[in-house]
Amino acid sequence: MRNWTPAQLLAIEASGCDLLVSAAAGSGKTAVLTERLIRRLTDRENPADLSKMLIVTFTRAAASELRERIGTALESAIEAEPERKDLVRQSLGLESAHIGTIHSFCLSLLRENFAVLGLAPAIRVADETEILMLALRVMDEVIDDFYENSENKPEIITKAGKKFHTDFQTLADTFVSDRDDKLAVYFYDIYKETMNYPEGIAILQASLQNLSSGSHSDFFDTVWGKIIKRGLVDELSYYKKIYEEAVEYFTGGDSVVEQKFAPAFICDRDFISGMISAVNESYSSARSFALSYKKTAIGRKKTEENEKTDFYKSVRTDFGKFIDKAGKKKLSASPEKISELMTDAASFCGSLFCVLDEFSKRFTEEKRRKGIIDYSDIEHLTLRLLTDENGNPTNAAQQCGAEYNEIYIDEYQDISPIQDKIFNSIANQNRFMVGDIKQSIYGFRGSAPDIFADYRNRFPKLEAVSDESQSLNSKKGHTVFLSHNFRCDDTIIDFTNAVFSSIMQNKYGSSLTYGNDDMLVFSKNYGEKHHAVPAHVVLISPSDVQNEEYSYTENNNEKKAENNFGKKSPDNIKPEYAEAEFVASESKKLIASGRYKPEDIRILLRSGASDTERFAKAFSRRGIPFENVRTAGFFERPHTMLLLSLLRCIDNPLHDIPLASVLKSPLFGFTMDELIAVKKDIHPESASSSSLLDIKSNEIINEHDDSVTAGTENKTKSSLFDCLCAYTEKYGFKKGKVFLDELSDLRSRAVSMPSDKLIWHIFSSTPIMYCGENNASAASLAESSFSADQRRADLLRFYDYARSYEASSFRGLNAFVSSINDLLAKEPHFVFDKSPKISEKAVCAMTIHASKGLEFPVCFICGSAKKFNKQDSSELVLIDGTLGACPKLRLDTGFARINTPMRSAAVQKNDEQETDEELRVLYVAMTRAKEILYITAGTAAPEVIISEARLCASYPSRFSFSKNASYMKWLLTAFAYKNGLQADSSDLSKKNTKLGTIMGSTGGEICAQADLIRYQIKDGMPVLETDGSEEFHSSVSIKNQKSENEKYLSSAEKNLSEDTVFKVIEKRLNKRYPDSYSSRLPAKISVSELYPGFLDESPALTPEEAIRRIEAEKSDSGIRVTKKSAKEISDRKKLLHIPHFLENDTMASTGAEKGTAVHVFLQFADWNNVTENGIQKEIERLIQKRFITPAMGKLISLPMLEVFFKSSLFKELCSAEKVYRELRFNVLLPAENFTENQDKKNLLKGEKLLVQGIIDCLYITSTGKLRLLDYKTDYVRGSKNDIKRELVERYRTQLLIYKQAATIITGKAVDKCIIYSLASGLEIEI
User: Fold this and answer.
1) 455 with 472: CB under 8 angstroms?
2) Which of 9, 10, 22, 14 lies closest to 472, judged by CA?
3) Mind listing the pLDDT tens digit for each residue in 816-833?
4) HSE-up of 1302 (CA within 13 Å, CB side)?
5) Facing residues of 433 across strands?
6) Three-class DSSP category at 542
7) Quick check: helix, strand or coil at residue 614?
8) β-pairing verdict for 431-435 and 478-482
9) Which of 9, 253, 260, 821 is such that its CA lies 20 to 30 A from the CA of 873?
């Protein structure tokens, strides 16, 4: 039985009030939640009713796991006490229990109350893509209407009676310079952002009111001004502390030094004190005081200066920049100008509200018409159902609340304001809320950790529950802290506590203080003697000699031209690549130790975007399997990008970039030399000349390929397509001709063919589904992190997406490609499946967000010197729940946009919130490791990071903490704060430097150490200066390998020599099993691939497999593929994976298309209509009904069909009792029938092959005889006897298999098998 900690028992047993469980990382919160539920359900005296419980989890997977745990516990309880009927009832009601996500709970409420909300009874939740496409279409319509009616300017009146006229033209010009399609995307982004708040778009109305009233107040008294004011005081206080130290330093020693420096520093110190007073007084006084600053010059007398003097002088320079920045930005606008800007911003918000209000009405109407809702609707409609206009619970909320005695909510730290209001409306002091604010890392999804923090601050801590009063009757609620960590080793626990007790503090501006209740308590049970490894913080930097010439800087990431490691010069390899080499090297040592496997190791990255290639290469060089777990954007994957580029080419070949991509792909195999030759009109015989290497690749395509036909300059530049056409005609360029012919065919099909049908045609006529397999030229695809199965699945998902797009009506390729372009403009990294799959056999790289809730034996947190991405603060309009909408405004000149003080406040608040979240992300990352933790950073300027960390530790403030922030700087700040950053500037010049250590909580052992490791470049590779640790690793690896091998030996064999041991193992591993041949039989095979000696081919890539890849499911295409031609195809594929349409058989390809057209016609034709009105009328009918396309209709041979419809065979079909056309089948046939080798026949006795195929026509005559008919369009030269002999030879095997299948399906013997040659009008019996 599990031993629960006192705090866990409190969380399990306390009741009678709202209970907030603040559960630290690894504290077993899921186990506590499950135990509480099970105890309540199995209580003998007062058992809870499962049907009266609402249990909400963050994900469906978590809900499923919790349901399973409860079910297992109930089964055990029933087994122990079978007489308890209440437990049986609970178990039977488990499947219908209210256990799920918040959206599933809300959706159930909406479906129960659909009539009240005006919803359709069968409402469904649309996927993101469908909603996005619909929203952009509706938004475009709204924008068009506003442009057409721009003369009309609706009036908005504020609560104070102030009038505003909406001005759509000005509003639009603020976002785009001309009537631009992107305007719809901008507006929809803002709409979605407003929907994160309970008010929705009404937040814009509130902004209008607040801006209008705020224009009459002192700016520092407004919600925006208070934030600017706090930031100014924080920065000034930081400088004041340093200046006071500087004044004391300069006035306490040498009189010459005092005379030179003291007056200037005293003057600035006094100015800072006065500035703080002015800021606290009013905006006007702060502005006036800042503008009065005059810098006092430092004396000119020469004195000996030291490091401290230089530091104070640099701070004074920074202070001058701060005052200049404050004067020009934060305090530049006069009070009158601010009032004017507020009025303009209010007008902007009013105009924006009018547009989004109209959009919201139409968008809602369109969704109701389609019977769909989105996830935002689910929450807002539920909130509307449960609360009135004043936010009070409705009758529906009271009725819903009465259904639940207990409400359990997991991951409450990630709750949104809307979700919190929903739960508040139905709760009655019966909520059990579990979470950890330190792990709230989903701000980008709308979560508000301040909600959890507010409960945590308001609810008193629950210390104990007395035996006499197990129930609590407090309406205030209580908080229980779970701090015992059962996951991490003590070194990781101590290091985490040391870091966050140092930097997660109010003095650094953190909204949360890492106090005693947050300190992790080591509670892991090792089970055996275990030596914990100190956490390792590592800075990796080029050695001094190389560092002097290194052009990389931390601030702007500028660097010289790149090679395969990021640089042309091998002496200038980026530090990030050296970091990857270090991580791979350390991982290899861990794996070689025998204690860890590759799957035990995780590389955690702040962002997974394009940051793992360096790790993939480093691990590959060491033979360690590596996988990137990040979910790559669907249209960013090499195989989907290729298909999309091809579709873009078909739609418009004048776009150079997609055209160059397709030409150089495995589909067409153009080399870079050939592309350059095409663009530069160089004769093909010279195309391989080394002189071409000097031509830049960007000369192949026009720099502005989207405007090839626009502009005078671009008119003089021919597109790549025009160049290819001219080049092919001039030189008879074979590859060019093949491509242009194929493109012409695809473009003609695209005119009348839906996009999904066109994609399917591409799949069947090109090897795009197989690119990257057995093909050296497709290495870029094969080396990607996507398996062959994944590539095919993605391409089929692409096809399904096109099918759903074309489902309602024919739209065509241009509309489909445009929709994808719009989608990517809105969401460049769009994915269908956002759940990454974790490999079980490789070192994996994943984002820190993806790792939340998981744990791994070894973790590397990499790229920790990177500065945080603050793109969110660059948006034109920032929206905040308190500040409202804060826009940039357009200048009257129309040439620029200006920031406003309100938006500056929003930027500052957003940056502060992002800094807080980054702290929490670091906490999540550090608490994933169970045993070993590395935190690494590649940097060319370690001295800068170290000095800033020391400065931050010495002068703690929000300003110093957020300045040039990175994880590495924060960690080293903790080292410095704990007096663990001992290395001085002279130490940093050494090759490898120990920067410092942090002692564990007991003080006896080190819990973390920080090191600076240098690297040098040898043979173009970064080589770490690791003192021969690689040689040690190799010996350990061999030793472990031998001990691993001994597991496979008997006690007698363990004494054999090493060579003999390996021979024994090799013999066992290479053992051949008697039935191994039958295990290689294919699971399913098509009739077109079968012939008597099919199973006699080599298990390698056989000619038949070559046919399968090129001619899959084309048994009736009219193409004659012999064994000889298949062998030729196989040999050619070994050299280059050539698509079907490049196989120099244009005649055959055309015949195949005609044959397909005739077969489709015969499948769907109404024979009565043919007899009465003729073949042409039936073709027109099939085109009208969209059974065939107009292009296919043109390929149908009328003379060929006229002969058939006049034949005696057709008359027999018309009089038949039953006719089956295009009869698909799957039957099991004896495998021994498909080998001519007697030994194999004996081996395969009793084995079956699943064979699939399609019979053109099977019919029962008027006399009851079963007959089989197969149409053939093959054109065969010679006499009638020659034609019959050739067709029988070609198709005998196929027809005999059809005959067996027909007998199995119908249970009747086939009377006659007929081949009807449409080309010659002959009826041939087999």
Assistant:
1) no
2) 14
3) 888 888 778 767 777 776
4) 30
5) 20, 409
6) strand
7) helix
8) unpaired
9) 821
